[in-house]
Specification:
heterodimer; A: alpha+beta; Aldehyde Oxidoreductase, domain 4; 3 domains; seven-stranded mixed sheet; globular; B: alpha+beta; DNA polymerase, domain 1; 2 domains; five-stranded mixed sheet; 5 helices; 5 strands
Amino acid sequence: MKEDEYTDIDFSDITTSSHLSRREFLKSLGGGIIVFFTVGDSSLLEAQRRRREYPEDFNAYLRIGQDGRVACFTGKIEMGQGVITSLAQMLADEIDVALESVDMVMGDTSVCPWDRGTFGSLTTRFFGPPLRAAAAEARAVLKELAAEYLQIPSGRLITKDGVIFDKNRREKQVTYAQLAKGKIIERHAKEKPALKTVSEFNIIGKPALRRDALEKVTGKAKYAGDIRLPGMLYARILRPPAHGAKLKNIDTSAVEKMEGVRLVRDGDLIAVLHKNPDEAEDALAKIKAQFDVPEAQVDDENIFEHLLNNAPRGKVADRGGDIASGEKLADAAVEETYLNSYVAHAPIEPHTALAKIEGNKATVWASTQTPFPLKDQITEVLGFASENVRVITGFVGGGFGGKSRSLQAVEAVRLAKLTGKPVQVAWSRAEEFFYDTFRPAAVVKIKSGITNSGKIIFWDYGVYFAGERGSQLFYDVPHHLTATFGARRGASPDPHPFSTGPWRAPANNTNTFARESQIDIMASKADMDPLEFRLRNLKDERMLRVLKAAGGKFGWAPSKAPSGRGFGIACGIDSGSYVAIMAEVEVDKKKGHVQVKRVVCAQDMGLVINPEGAKLQVEGCVTMGLGYALTEEVHFKGGRILDLNFNTYELPRFSWVPKIETVLIKAEDSPAQGGGEPPIICMGGVIANAIYDAVGVRLFQLPMTPERVKEAVASRARSAVLTT
Amino acid sequence: MRENVSFKLNDKSISLTVDSERMLLWVLRSDLGLTGTKYGCGEGLCGACTVLVDKRAVRSCRIAVRDVKAKEVLTIEGLAKNGKLHPIQEAFVKADALQCGFCTPGMILDAYSLLSENPQPTLAEIIQNMDYNLCRCGAHTRIIQAIQSAANEMKGVEQR
């Protein structure tokens, strides 16, 4: 089942958890706490999961141990984005325990509440509120239980660090652990208690260091590939040289004689397995296979033309006024086309999974962003009962959207079933590049116009194959139209020669690069400073605020571009957060090399749960964004992927990284918004604009490689000669 | 060729009978269960598999196990002593110098190698030394800060 189909399924016909619990699982103990099952019996959670929504019962989110530690259960996973810390902060604050006493249990489908997956900067925005509500309710119920236990009116009780005491007599107290005894709490609050307000926070909003750092600096952190089981085998799978290639003939005789090697052939799946991964790799190299490779129709040069030729009819995403009237009112117009290439996710941990099948039960450890959808997929592949399939997600070594799809786990499951042994499938770096769901190549066409007073009067925007996210115009323009041609996914026929998928802030990197470049071009046309031009054309208070904050921190002094200073601006909205970035670059005109020297990012993300974690994400976005802006592009010929390792596919390095300064806007009274993606959307645009400011050349294609920068500089010199 | 290979691993002598042409990375990870050393690219391009051989950073995906015979190999698991973190590990924790953590063992061991050779590196020297270690999450600025503060912390203290 595809992930997007998955999200559309309605499971609401399943009875509610509370109904099931009362009928089937009730078992009464004393003290007002009723226990109906202990840790390990997951049938109730299973029923909740079938509904595909966050459970009502607060017990699904947390458990208070006999030692007073509080386990927090979440279907979200930790891949570097830091929710292992921020979710613990939310729980600890609402239930009133020390942050240190929270243990995170993440992405385990047998013990965690159902979750669609970790993507889209959804964790804080959409899992945060139910988690906080669960913790607040648990605290309220514990207080009621304490009132009965201590024979003190609830109103006199205070909670602090997992202890409930009488505010008049501190020694009259009981701990959460004494009340809960490690069991599920059956009592629920009659009315859902209110969440804490800003003034009541003790832990939310305070900077906290990463809670997984100790495990990660000592090598103890377990990723999917680090799980070892007795008798396990490592698989290497025969791969085609190109997407769309068909196996013509195969000779496995050399492998069949090798000691300790198992050969498996099941339809399209041909694999060798060994108790050591490198020896499985050696065996794979001994298979002789020939493939029919279809003739290449598209490559990284002609792909844009191909996309435009194959674009379906447009869909209006946003409109206002009337473009034709706007065009009549314009004193000057600009029409440009922007391109961006396919980009790889390239997490340092390739896709990895270990599958164990015993009888009719399967357990799979997988590096995945979507453990629950993966569980469904595995259930379908094996034909097992859903409750007999468990996906466990350890630490994930980077995802960025690429681990939303987890084919490697399906391969591991199939091989475990065929061999009767636990099987690990860990993709090589080449496989990781080959099977990646790339950020789609895309085209944006914009025609826009201004009046002599520097107001944008019309905006006609079309985006091809990137997707809608970030395409809606937030500038104040009377006549505007935004159309999307070709969805990111599901286009028929699919114009891409391989899989594409969500890449950190999907579509928004493409849209923001195009929009912010166009805005700067118009600012130049209007003879205005790019910041001044933006401020004049904005009414959105939040956007004005981040732009001014960035300008203040950066020390932006107005000047028309190109000023020679190499300063750039870009701004945008993603995942509910507002971002403005300013950058300073140095351009080597001879070599075409661009060095980003300084970046200031101002972000309004509403309530900030963990300011330190938020800054870390800003820095991560800025740094990762240097790649798609400057070097990252997948080269290919038809279905053949030409970049298969980091020697040709260049990720940002230490020597590229600018000084990064972050301003988090104080907006704690508005709801918490996304933090893992927003700043990255500005990186293409801000660097393009800074390059123009430095040397007066405009780049219309991402990445802005040294070759493209050199070419742009040379072509400007040529046209200067022609016009003089 | 299968042969007996002896070396020091995390301060303990070990002896293995293995195909000695196999890469150290896989022997560490599968035969010895030391999974802190990571595979990232298999071609020495990313640094995730970095270990120390006689205190110098080496890409374990590119060095055969026979080439560490009679040498001292230190992996990330052997860096903390008696439950006490090495100052570089401590500095990474304090500076939040990691995100997904997959490149972290390699980063720490490369930093260790740098600081044992050059205890007070300049910023440019740190960047130059670390430039072939890839981090996809973008923890770079924090990693540099962590190495700088570890260098200060270790000033005057004899390194192990």
